[in-house]
Amino acid sequence: MRSNIIFVYTLFIAIMVISVTGCYYDKAELLYNGSQTVNCSTISAKFSPDVKTIIQNKCAITGCHNSASGEGSTILETFTQISGKAARIYQRCVVEKTMPSNGPLLPAEIAVLKCWIDSGAPNN
After folding, report:
1. CA contacts within 13 A on the Cβ side of 46
2. Burial code of 73-109, b = ≥16 C-beta within 10 A, e = fewer?
3. What is the pTM of this model?
4. Taking Cα atoms as reference points, which of 70, 76, 77 lies closest to residue 89?
5. Is-contact 105 93, C-beta < 8 A?
6. pLDDT in tens, 14-50
7. What are phi and psi of 54, to 5 degrees?
8. What's the rounded Cα separation, in Å, for the pair 68 and 119?
9. Which pLDDT tens digit goes with each residue over 75-95?
10. Residue 42 per-residue DSSP state
């Protein structure tokens, strides 16, 4: 009888330990909501070769932020248009990760946008 009680307690403890430690699937980027440290000194974050390419390929596409489709309320095709919306781009793409609407940018793309905007969104 005593060995059965010890077995039940041991089994209970084992199940508790496994359930508490074995089911940890939290993703840091979701928990910290874009607050990971990015070393901007190691990232190319220039407008023409880097930022403009990301915006053209991921944002200013048909049905979104381009003038050809006319469907997006915000057009993001020129430096003036993009830099004028830098704060909004930062919020939606870097912090919230709710844009682009077809899924968040890659971490490297987010880092480029973050570094470019943090440096004052220059036309470089």
Report:
1. 4
2. eebbbeeeebbebbeebbebbbeebebbeeebbeeeb
3. 0.68
4. 76
5. yes
6. 777 776 665 555 555 555 544 457 899 899 899 999 9
7. -60, -50
8. 30
9. 899 999 999 999 999 999 999
10. G
